[in-house]
Amino acid sequence: MNIFRNDIRLTIVVVTSVAAALIASAVIVLVAQKNGLDPVRLTGDASGYVKLAYGILNHQVFSIDPAAPFYPQSFRTPGYPFFASVLLGIFSSEILVLFIQSIIVSVAVPFLYLLVRPFHERAAFWGSIIFALEPIRLFLASSFLSDALFAAILLLSLLLLEHARKQQSFPWYAAVGISLGVLMLVRPIAMFLPFLYALYLLVQHVTIRRALIGSLIMCAVSLATIFPWLYRNHTYFNSWSLSSVSSFNFAFYNASEFMKWKPNDAAKAALVAFSTEQGTLDSSYAFSLHRAPLAVEIFKKTVAGNEIEYAIFHVAKTIPFFISDGLRDTVRLFKVNLGTPPNITTAILRGDIATVFSYLTHGGLGIWLLLIGSGFWGLVTVLFISESIRALIKRDWFPLFLALLVGYFAILTGPVSNARYRLPAEGFMLVLAIMQLYRWKVWWGRKDSR
Q: What are the tens digits of pLDDT across the range 357-373?
């Protein structure tokens, strides 16, 4: 514990993170119960994760079915349900597990501080403090959802990467590979991160040879970590995919939203027929890897001949990733009526400015939450982009790497973008934004104190 006695700022970061986690968990549980809601199952995703966790705990199967025969689940990956099942097995009480989980995943905040501190101490400190207090992070950390655990393991993997790079240690590269494999099992969106990590090693190398060997070890170990799960999916579903979630996102989010901008009667008819058929099937089978190729075909029919338009659409629909507030969606979960807001990015793509203006002038509480939440993240985004451009021009590799990670999650999330899916990138955006603020002091003739 000497590290905390001798490191005041790290102590402040840890205490702030844990205290905020406990207070947020208490508020969420109390408000949910006051409104007659189950704080454990506030969202459909949370309910699904709880079913999977109990399946592992009670029957040693990965299925949402409460009794035999247990149809194997392939829409989710096993990382978070296994984590939740361990906590449920130890503590029994679902409410207590929410509190314990919020404390465990709060390590993401000191991890962010320790990661960035060697490069810019004050940005690391203030970025971590804001990250600790960010409302959506606190809500996700206190929910049966995979996002907060994913963010914590992501930051751990980056700490391991920096240590491996500085020490040029092959065992530490293997540790990075294990953390990346676990990360993919929590959320499949991490599947391409080993290549991004390898790129960073190549530009930050001591020698090309050791960077290449380290990258190969890291990638090989990450593949070995997920291979048993891939083999399981191949055995049950004849697929080497981690999960089917991306395939159904392509059909029901990407294709569906794209057709609102560029109508395609044939694709719409195919999507309606597919959705109708889905409704006649058991949900475990309907959203499994058995059906995933059909979902991908729907997406291909929608995009065929409109690839450039889709690329524009995809980039435009990542805007909410950066500036969405998430406050309105969270407040609605507690039975607060904010009305039905329009899809602002879709309205803008259509040129329907009147709809956007009407919402901005008559949105009530919803618009105030939008202005507060999105106003803050809009400012962070402007500062983040400024720092990213500076890092690119100056070839300042570490902040540029963090910026690439933000871009990675934004592009892969695409039309599904909202504040929840920004969580893995939030800490990076905050510290880069604060770095830029300190550089403004230099432009104003004041010292950039680190």
A: 555 555 555 566 667 77
